[in-house]
Amino acid sequence: MTDLVIRGGTVVVPGEDPRPADIVVDGGRIVGLDDAGSATDARRTIDATGLHVLPGAVDPHVHLGNYQPLEVDVEPGTALAALGGVTTIVNYFKDPDSYLERVPEYLETYRAGAHVDAAFHLQLLTETHLDELEATTREHGITSYKINLAWKGRATEVFGTDRPIDNGWVRTVMGVMRSIDPEAMVLNVHCENQELKDEARRRLETEMEPTLEFYERLAPPVSEADAVQSMLLLARESGVRTYLVHLSAAMTMELLDVHPWVGDRVTAETCNHYLAYTSEEAPGLDATVSPPIRSGSDREALWEAVADGRIATVGSDSNPQLRAAKMGSGDFWDIVPGFDGVGTMLPVVLSEGHHRRGLPLGRVAEVTAANAARAFGLYPRKGTIAEGSDADLVLVDLDREHTPSNEDLTGPHNDVSIYAGYTFRGWPVTTLSRGEVVAHEGRVVSTPGRGRYLPRDI
User: Fold this and answer.
1) What is the three-class DSSP state of 182?
2) Integer Cα distance of 139 and 411 in angstroms
3) Out of 105, 115, 284, 435, which could bridge 78 as a Cys pair, Cβ 3.0 to 4.6 Å?
C-alpha cells in the first residue's frame, strides 16, 4: 500500500498538454502517474477534482537574509513561498568572508526555520572566494555563483571587496569555473552597465520627481542591454553556463533573439513584477527595484520572449524588508531597491500569462518549475511530475479569482506588498512538498524546520 494518491485532477507535466491522471506517492516521491481512476490502495487520498496539478514551483531567485538576518526571514519567507505554490527556492547569499566558513551557518539557520526545500547561490566578491571556489563547490554542493555588475565602482565601499567587480572579474571567474566543470558550474550575472546609470543620474538629477517613471529613467534599457551583450560574448568564449538574472527590457529581448547560444549555454530569467506591472501601473515607490519596472512595450516584449523560449525562467527576486528601512530618510535618492514577491510568481504567470495571453499550461510549468530546476542541477528530482521525482505539487483552481490583502502577503519580515489589491485569476489551493501538505486554502499547515537543503552533484 502506498502513502498517497492524488485523484481526479488534471495533471500538467512541463512541456505537455494537460491530461486527467492519478498521482501515486510513496516515501515522499512520485511512484506512479496512472490513468484517471485507476490508482488504489493508498493510506491517504487527496481529491483534486476540478483542479489542475502542476509541479511545485521552483523560484530560482530569492534573497532571504539579504537586508535582514536570515533567522528573521526564513520562516515567514518560506511560508509565503508555500502559500504561493513554491516548493523549492534557490537563495542568494553575499559576504566578503570565506564561504567555506559561512555556508555551515547558513545551512543551520535555514534548516531550523524553513517550510520548503532550498539550494544556494553565492555572490563572488573577493580573491579568497575565487581561491576557495572549487573547495566550496565540492564541500557544500554549490554549483551556482553570482556577479553583480551594478556594484561596479562601489563594491569595496559597500561590501568590503578587495578587487574591482567588472567584466574582467567575470572573465576570470568563468575561466576557473571552466576548469572545475563547465557543465555543472553556472555563473549568474546581474547585467547593468553602472557607468551608463551613473551618467543618467548626473544628467537627470536636477529633473528629479519622486515617481517610478523617473526612477526608470535612471537605469535606461541600454544599460541592461549593453551588459547582456558583453555577457553573451564572454559566455560564448568560455563555454561556461551563464544565467542572466531579472531581465527587464525589450532591447535586451532583441539581443537574445540574435544570439543562437541562448537556450544552450545561456539561460535568461525575468521576474513576476516585470510581467505584472508597468512603471505607470505599479504602486509607486514601494515598487522600486533594480533593474526598474519599465513600460508597457517592455512588458509585452518580455511576455513574447517567455512564450517563444528566449526567456526560460521566472524568478521573484524576492528581497523582503520593512518599509521604514526601504524608504530610509525619506529622500528619494536613499530608497533601497527590492521587495518581497515569492508567493506571487506562479499566480502572476497563470493570470497574466495563461489567462490573458494564452500561454499553454505546459509552458507555464516549464517557466515556473522545470527550467529553473534544469538550470541549477535539481532536475528531475525537482521541477516535474514523473516517477522518481519528489512529490512537490501544487493544486490550482484555474478559475478562482483572488485579490489578496496586504496582510495575506506580508509577515514580520516585510510589511508592504506591491501585490496587495491585485486581482489574480488562478490561485493555489493546496501545496505539497515531498508528499506532505504544507499549505492549504490560504493557511500554512507545516511545521518550520521541515525544509531540506539540496546539495548539487559535481
Assistant:
1) coil
2) 34
3) 115
